[in-house]
Sequence to fold (224 residues):
Amino acid sequence: RKEVEQDPGPFNVPEGATVAFNCTYSNSASQSFFWYRQDCRKEPKLLMSVYSSGNEDGRFTAQLNRASQYISLLIRDSKLSDSATYLCVGDYGGYNKLIFGAGTRLAVHP
Amino acid sequence: GAGVSQTPSNKVTEKGKYVELRCDPISGHTALYWYRQSLGQGPEFLIYFQGTGAADDSGLPNDRFFAVRPEGSVSTLKIQRTERGDSAVYLCASSLGHQNTEAFFGQGTRLTVV
Fold:
């Protein structure tokens, strides 16, 4: 079983839709969690950190449930520019020893 | 300012050959990481440097892989006797090195072993 698991998608949604991604992790030793965004043939970039108390940044909301070992990302009012792969990530050492999920692909269409 | 720079951007090599991949981190970043990303997968941790020393090399798949960072800045990932299974995008990242600081990735080197 992979340490971080995500639904690979793709999620095909119209502009303006709300879309939710889920992720589960198996190693409870992870100290921190993140969502990264990766555009086609580009490097991963940090989208946001994930906290148990929830984290909201504009149209994006991330949530961590340590008891269930479950992470979520909600995107509201989807834009064409949100089309990308979203990677669920755990930091297992506190020094950016990042364990990535395989990613969930999102395609937003007009 | 300049981000993480990796060269070459693409490398095609024959099975059995030796390759070197270079990473130039963001100036002032003491921590440097190598990851490998295969098609359809997320990046996979290979090695972490704090300064000149490899603080965690637990992700290196076997002894054909080696990385150095002799002066605490530029790093080179070296792969001996390349195999077709080594084909992937090799990503380098750097950070300030303090706990919970963001890691910034380079655009990667796409290695193809034929």
In short: The radius of gyration of chain B is 13 Å. Chain B has a mean pLDDT of 95. DSSP finds no helices and eleven strands in chain B. The CA atoms of residues 29 and 96 of chain B lie 4 Å apart.
